[in-house]
Specification:
2 helices, about 120 residues, mainly alpha, about 0% strand, rod-shaped
Length: about 120
């Protein structure tokens, strides 16, 4: 925003200077027109330099933002992968527990079945 204010200030100053120059010009019209043209060229050059400065500033800011976003996404991705690994490990342990419990129940059921088969004979 400061760059815009500077640019606006340069343009406004140039316009006021040209206007005052025309009003208080002690020289001939051709000389005054030449001065106006010179001042307009100076203003154009100043404006072009300011535009380049603003462009460079915006470019640097965009690059900084892009880098910050990339770093944040990489960090989030790493955190997500860590959480996923932890979840898979936890699920694996729970699956092992479930399998062990089912195997124990199967043993108990086989024992009961064996008793029932022996009792029915």
């Amino acid at each position: 925003m400061s760059d815009n204010n500077n640019t606006l200030g340069v343009l406004l100053g140039t316009a006021v200077g040209v206007g005052l120059g025309v009003l208080f010009a002690p020289d001939k019209g051709s000389k005054t027109r030449q001065r106006i043209a010179e001042k307009a060229n100076e203003a154009k050059d100043t404006l072009a330099a300011e535009a380049i400065h603003v462009k460079d500033s915006v470019s640097r800011t965009a690059t900084d933002i892009r880098n910050n976003v990339s770093e944040a996404l990489a960090s989030q991705n790493q955190t997500l992968e860590q959480k996923l690994d932890t979840l898979v490990t936890d699920i694996s342990y729970k699956a092992d527990d479930v399998i062990s419990t089912l195997e124990n129940k199967l043993k108990v059921l086989k024992a009961k079945n064996k008793k029932l088969q022996t009792a029915s004979k």
